[in-house]
């Protein structure tokens, strides 16, 4: 049972990593297009998100 949970968390972490990478890429493109813009999306830290979910 514990093993399944760990694999599930690994999968979720992988998906979060992908999403965060995509968002950071989109964010970078936005900044490249509008260099005067000071608003930057906060980069997502999958480990931080996971630890918050696990609490």
TrEMBL record:
This is Uncharacterized protein.
């Amino acid at each position: 049972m514990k093993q399944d949970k760990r694999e599930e968390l690994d999968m979720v972490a992988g998906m979060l990593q992908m999403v965060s990478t995509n968002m950071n890429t989109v964010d970078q493109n936005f900044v490249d297009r509008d260099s005067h813009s000071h608003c930057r999306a906060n980069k997502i830290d999958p480990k931080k998100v996971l630890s918050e979910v696990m609490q």
